[in-house]
Amino acid sequence: MTTSAAISAILLAILLGAIVPGPSFVIVARNAVGLSRAHGLATALGMGLGGITFAGIALAGLYTLLFAVEWLYVALKIAGGLYLAYIALRIWRGASRPLSMQTDGVRETGSVRRSFWLGLGTQLSNPKTAIWYGSIFAALLPQHPPLWCYFVLPSLVFCIEFGWYTVVAVCFSSRRPRDVYLRAKVWIDRIAATMVATLGLRLILAAGKNGL
Asked: pTM (2 decimals)?
């Protein structure tokens, strides 16, 4: 797999992870519903900057270690594949559960800046997001990525995270798109689960090969 193809796979995996409803999704959505579209967009910006932070940590930390310990690279590919399979199972099992959109604790007043910090804090304090990023980067990016990846990839990650949560903020501040999503939640989650599981299986099967 070429570096460009690997980056495309990383971005797809990150997009899938963002799309699946979790704490970040609910925070953005309920700020858009309970406060305003501006608050939802500010929260989305915080999520995007959190994504850059995780991408930078994954690139700077993991690959220094992987450069010196090659077997760990293979082990992390297997671990990443297993984690993706686990996430896929949880997504599938939770597909039929209704998404809670309660706005308890979210006041109708407050600064947009506060919504931004809430988004950033929610993203950075979620250990599952950190593990997701670490697994994806370790499993998909070539062991010796070119220098440009360290500059381009975090920027693209920001576009994915901020772009998706901007869509969430806009949609959930409008009644009709929100209702459409909630009706289609089961199928959206199950399609995402299938794609994540397929990616995890591919990583496990390719773990013994050199590179990607």
From this structure: 0.66
